[in-house]
Amino acid sequence: MSEVVHNTKPVSERTLFGHPIGLANLFGVELWERFSFYGMLTILGYYLYYTSTEGGLGLDKATATGIVGAYGGLVYLSTVLGGWIADRVLGMERTVFYGGVIVMAGHIALALIPDLAGVGIGLVLIALGSGALKANASSLLGTLYEKGDARADGGFTLFYLGINLGAFSGPLITGLLQSHVGFHWGFGAAAVGMALGLAQYVVFRRNLGEHGREIPNPLPRTEIPRTIAAIVALLVIIALAWATELLTLDNLPDVTTFVIVAASIAYFAIMLTSAKVTPLERTRVRAFIPLFIANAVFWSLFQQIFTVLAVYSDERINWNIFGWDAPPNWIGSMEPVWIIALSPLFAIMWTRLGTRAPSTPRKFSLGVIGMGIAFLLFVLFSGSEGKTVPILAIFFILGAFAVSELLLSPIGLAVTTKLAPNAFRAQMMALYFFSVGIGTSMSGVLSKFYDPSHEAVYFGITGLVTVGVGAAVWSISPWITRHMEGVH
């Protein structure tokens, strides 16, 4: 079916800097979606645990950071729903658009509805919308390149540049608004950002041609009642768990992690046993499993920018810049600065190296090891107290975060599209995001163990364990490469 898509003219043959013209549209919508997402996320924890006099809700700090981690995990868990809708109901292109509409509605709810009611409604809508948009924007980009196209890694790295332009600018704007006029103005700015993303997506929609319009596995009308019943049953189960306190604000990250792990195991089982998956595709899915685990470990540290490191930024970093105190949520903008600077260099490097570049498993292992080393660097400041950690030192540590991320994340997006069975293209990308979701919710679980008085132990253990995982991936990389069956 992909051959039919790639033979369409003339849009699919137009290029921009050597890449398919549709990359520009997906670059833009992902930029604004990430502007809204990270702009909101970097002030969310503070909104939850700041006192009412500071404009917050006054929750316990560990509960607040746990909610942030769990919410991030739920965003990635919802990618399976977004992938399912794209594969069976709307197609990837339309799912991206409607996902953006729901995200915007969620930010509006956070901006206008007070207290925990606004948080609940807003976060659920944003999680559902982001899940639909994220899984399908990345998969849609993959359809612009034929399998084996050497430009794909470079294209995904440029796409990643758009993500990080949004991730850089969002916290800058929302942090200033939050500190000067209040949290709800910051949430409102996130809604405006998503609206701008939707506007540009509609205007330049034609650049995508017929890519992503196809519905690979249409849902038969006879299955619609059963599908609706399953959704209602799930909502009833969640409501009962909340009513009986099996699910609480305190255990939300633990439950989220468990659910995503269970869902991931189920998804791997479905793909490995489906009659629609060929033996060659099944072998490639097996090769994806260790990469999935490594990715989850990487993100369990990286996503602590929004949990442990958000608190660290608020309580330990000296944010005084030439006599002016910058908002602590600006820690969320520091790592994207490095990504923006380094992404073009990595794109050029991968394109020029071509098949001579390190294999995907080697890149993954280096990314995980680098992330562990970056965490170990925080141990250097563990003996100090109060807001004494120099901002310049943190800036360079986050530079190590960025190098590690560029070795792993855009490469992970690209290899997922290459290893995906044809019948599960969008849902395979959702499975990739499950690994990010496990890591993100784990960042909330781990945040409960952070204590400023025991920083050396916390950063030391998490860093060393992560380095060990990266070394293990390096040691089995030849096996992974063989089972990738020709995918470099």
- Poorly predicted ranges (pLDDT <50, ≥5 residues)? 1-12
Structural class by helix and strand composition: mainly alpha
Strand content: under 5%
Radius of gyration: 21 Å
Query: Which strand order does the major sheet show?
Result: 1-2
By oligomeric state, this entry counts as single chain
Helix content: over 70%
Largest sheet: 2 strands, antiparallel
Gross morphology is: globular
Distance from first to last alpha carbon:
23 Å
Q: What is the number of beta strands? A: 6
Subcellular location: Cell membrane; Membrane
Keywords: Cell membrane, Membrane, Transmembrane, Transmembrane helix, Transport
Protein name: Peptide MFS transporter
Membrane topology: Multi-pass membrane protein
What features would you describe in this structure?
- This protein has 488 residues and is mostly helical.
- It is built from 17 helices and six strands.
- It has a two-stranded antiparallel sheet with strand order 1-2. It has a two-stranded parallel sheet with strand order 3-6. A two-stranded antiparallel ribbon has the order 4-5.
- It is globular and about 60 Å long.
- The two termini are 23 Å apart.
